[in-house]
Amino acid sequence: MAKTKQNVKKGPRKQGINKSCHSMNPDRPKDGLKGVAKPRTKSTINRLKMYKHFKAKRDRTGKVIIPAPFQSWVSSGTMARVEPNRKWFDNTRVVSQNALQKFQDEIGKSLKNPYDVIMKPSRLPVTLLNESSKQKRVHILDTEPFETTFGNKKLRKRPSLNAADENQLAEVIQETENSYSEEKDFNKIREDTGERDMVRDWIMNAGQSKRIWNELYKVIDSSDIVIMVLDARDPFGTRSKHVEEFLRNEKPHKHIVFVLNKVDLVPTWVTQRWVAILSTEYPTIAFHASLKHPFGKGALINLLRQFSKLHSERKQISVGIVGYPNVGKSSLVNALRSKKVCKVAPIAGETKVWQYVTLMRRIFLIDCPGVIHASVTNASETDTDKVLKGIVRVENVPSPEQYVTAVLERVQRDHLIRTYNITKWEDTDDFIRQFALKTGKLIKGGEPDVPNVSRMILNDWQRGKLPYYCPPPELPSKTEQQTNQLAAFDIQQDFSKIRVIPEFPGEENLLEAKEDKEDVEENSAVAVEDESGAVAGEEDEEESSSSSSSSSDDGLSDADQDEEEREKKPMKNMTSKERRRIIRQNRRHKVGSNFYERVNVKNRKR
After folding, report:
1. How many Å apart are CA 226 and CA 304, to the nearest integer?
2. Which residues of 133-149 are buried (b: 16+ CB within 10 A; e: fewer)?
3. Residues 67 and 12 sit within 8 Å (Cβ to Cβ)
4. CA-to-CA distance for 228 and 223, rounded, in angstroms?
5. Which of 300, 322, 353, 485 gives a 20 to 30 Å CA spacing to 538?
């Protein structure tokens, strides 16, 4: 008889122990492999097989011969079922209402406190605990229809009034009357007087273009820490509320740090008061951006190092630097790097695009162009405020003489007299005329060059030549909770080491040294100001030079003293030959290879 094949149904082929040494064989020996540092595990082999052989092998009829790596060995066509056990349908975890309310309160406090950081966030949907009502006002007709409120079938026992008695009704009326604003009342009929607002000059909209805002949001999205640079002369005026609200609502995982720049232009007690006020909201550091003698550099670097240790699981952290134009963002980057890595200028709008700068191996800085948020958050900001904040370029401002009046009102009279040597003036025009005559800025007919002189005064204001600052408000009384928060995170800075450039007579002894010392002793320090001893060293050098000069003066002969007294005489009583001789002697000679390191050339040491 001829042999015939019997049609036997076979299941999927099962694999036994494979003795091959292929790298995709999970049963191969792991010892003595040449050139293999770490052999593949069984899970890795299954994952790679899933990438390559992700389909099951089938015959002509469609039956599975060899299943896919992720498929089970159940025969084709078998329906998988869930085990009929109660444990698969019960709640895995149960929490009581009191525990849930306590958890909600504790996590709410931690999220609102800028000095607390949640290290291990819960996997639970915490956002569901936030009660957000889309409609603040309930639809009254849906809850209380007309049929059930009035008529024979009414169900309401008493009317729902806002006030229970006449006294409470009077209080409600008084609060409504006090909160009434005529400007916000759009239902009020106003008489058309024919007055129209003029079109604002194009320069007043600088820093608000779509390109600049795109740069800002690129910096915010790329940053783990956002440093907001404020001007110490007007911190509230250069504070970006829009960025704070955006980070608080949309990016709560990002950290915010305030840096109070230009502290060398205000008295020391003003810096101390502003730091104490702003520290109640976010960590605040006083800073003076200088290549030679910076202040606050050690405290800021230590703070960034703490953040890098806080996020040790990340390979690197990025620090975005944002703020108003001309507050010193690029100068802060240069001060941290101790070299000129960003282009800086004493005018607004020098930085055009964002730029990455490496500070350390794991810390990167991102410089951002200045963005103005006043048009969004503060619609009452006038053109005068924008000019005096330094957020527009003075050379592009039309009719600059109209802003000089505000400068004369804000700067003290003694400071104006000491800066410009003008003792008396009647009004703004008289002051501009006298300053033009003193500087020689005249046009045809001997008339003062009003626009150029006004721009000179505005430049002196913006660049800190005219001493001015916004007086800080009274320091609020700290609660026990705020005291504990500041004690857990305290940045110690010695404000007496700030090199204040302008002179503020009568304000030298207002530094609250005693209170600051007590706070330092009470609170546990986390970030300590690590200032270099350059200031003390230079003071010692000055003292030694003064002592040496005094000792040398004592040993001068009578002839030398007569010659010095002769040189101290006013230049008007000398002949031209004597004046030229003194000028030649006092002229600086470029001698030595380290001349530019010892001598202050073009404010290099400033």
Report:
1. 11
2. eeeeeeeeeeebeeeee
3. yes
4. 12
5. 300
Distances (CA, A) of 174 to 113, 171, 229, 396: 35, 5, 42, 49
**How, if at all, do strands 363-367 and 355-358 pair?**
antiparallel
Q: Which amino acid is at 301?
A: I
- The residues that bridge with 136 in the sheet, in sequence order, are none
**How much is the mean pLDDT over the chain?**
78
For 272, the token pair is: 């101390």
Tally of CB atoms within 10 A around 56: 16
- Is the pLDDT reported for residue 376 higher than 50? no
Structure tokens at 346: 């004493």
Helix, strand, or coil (residue 323): strand
Q: Tell me the β-bridge partners of 365.
A: 319, 357
d(CA 306, CA 329): 21
Task: Kindly state the tokens that stand for 338.
Answer: 């101790």
Question: In the prediction, which pLDDT does 366 show?
Answer: 95
Range among 1-10, 107-116, 154-163, 472-481 rated most confident: 107-116
Show the tokens assigned to 25: 């064989």
Q: Residue 316: how many CB atoms within 10 A of its CB?
A: 13
Distance CA 395, CA 132 (A): 50
Tell me the C-alpha to C-alpha distance, in Å, between residue 562 and each of 277, 547, 566, 585.
57, 22, 6, 17
Please tell me the predicted confidence (pLDDT) of residue 83. Answer: 79
The pLDDT tens digits for 276-287 are 999 988 999 999
Maximum C-alpha span of the chain = 147
Sole residue written with tokens 């703004």: 428
Three-state secondary-structure class, residue 42:
helix
